[in-house]
Amino acid sequence: MHDREPLENLTRAEPSVDGRQAGRQPAHVIVVGNQKGGVGKSTTALHIIVTLLRQGRQVASVDLDAHQWSLSRYFSNRTASTAKAGIKLPLPEHWRIWPSLADSRQAAEIEERTYFQQLLDDLSRRCEFIVLDCAGGDQYLSRLAHSHADTLVTPLNDSFIDFDLLARFDGQSGVVGGPSVYAEFVWECRKQRASAGGKAIDWVVLRNRLSHTDAHDKRRVGAGLTALSKRIGFRIAPGLSERVIYRELFPHGLTMLDVHEFPGRGGLRMSDLAARQEVRAMITALALPPADGA
Ligand SMILES: Nc1ncnc2c1ncn2[C@@H]1O[C@H](COP(=O)(O)OP(=O)(O)OP(=O)(O)O)[C@@H](O)[C@H]1O
Ligand SMILES: [Mg+2]
Fold it and tell me: How far away, in angstroms, is 42 Cα from ligand 1 center?
């Protein structure tokens, strides 16, 4: 493994496919992004990937967060824990993209864009879905990803702090002001995509970890999001609720959809069933393209 290779195939699983047939649609690109950190992007990306794999779909994943590599660590943990337990769980073809080390910003952007485009073109020929997990903040790789999204998934914790990245909000009057930093960022990416002839981005904002918020705030954030969704063009869907299990699964690289296959944990608990149900509801709400011929 080269330390600073811009591209690295981390968990190249034995391909779940031999390659897509000629004439089939290019891959559907799902980008999980939010400039806010710690909102559940990587956890959401993992659950989307594993759900699709379990539906028999051909999925590649790309980790763009060189600062943490959380999604990549999920898959390393998954590989290690399943090997130890002697079981087999589905894995995507997984890649990471490092930021360029070029001296000038312009050269770095060219290098990143070239690698990014090559990788997406290649994966697009072989997979049905490409899921990209973005870092928080405003980085060029994240911009590139957003402007290639067919579906953009933005997990948002139900709090005014997170809402603030989408729109200005007057806490006294409850009035929603103009779009703020992340909404502007998505707007720019939408424009770039449109000028490159791409189809419109289906932007889905997921309300995550709802139980954290008290009922009054929940209603106010909900009303603010509804008002904003019409103005700046996104759909609102239920995300994952606050559950300790989502944190506990990380060291094992498991999702809610795998826990029953893992030895030593016992059968499914009521809370597991509820969590699996919310994962399924989230995926259904994304309204992803069905399998060819389905
Ligand atoms: N629904 C949830 N319930 C409980 N814990 C959660 C939930 N979603 C995420 N977490 C935990 O919150 C932390 C942050 O989640 P995650 O890494 O998915 O967020 P992120 O947006 O990818 O963060 P970053 O911006 O740092 O990449 C992790 O410890 C994760 O296990
Ligand atoms: Mg992350």
Answer: 7
C-beta 55 within 6 A of ligand 1: no
pLDDT at 7: 40
Q: What is the mean pLDDT of residues 14-41?
A: 76
* Banded model confidence at residue 218, pLDDT cuts 50, 70, 90: confident
Which 3 state secondary structure label does DSSP give 67? Answer: coil
pLDDT value for 165: 87
What's the length of the chain? 294
Yes or no: say if 62 and 52 are a contact pair by the CB < 8 Å rule: no
Tell me the chain's radius of gyration from C-alpha atoms: 19
Q: How far is CA 145 from CA 135, 139, 150, 167, 214, in A?
A: 11, 10, 10, 22, 34
CATH class of 25-286: alpha beta
Q: Which two tokens stand for residue 83?
A: 């090997």
Return the percentage of the chain with pLDDT > 70, whole number: 88
| pTM score of the predicted model | 0.91
Q: What is the DSSP letter of 165?
A: T
Q: Is 121 helix (H, G, I), strand (E, B) or coil?
A: helix
The finding on whether 136 has its CB within 6 A of some atom of ligand 1 is: yes
Token pair, residue 238, equals 């239920």
> Which residues are CB-contacts of 212 (< 8 A; sequence separation ≥ 6)?
157, 158, 159, 242
Whether ligand 1 lies within 6 angstroms of the CB of 247 is answered as yes
Classify strands 28-32 and 176-179 as parallel, antiparallel or unpaired: unpaired
Two tokens at 291? 């399998």
How far does the centroid of ligand 2 lie from the alpha carbon of residue 123, in Å? 22
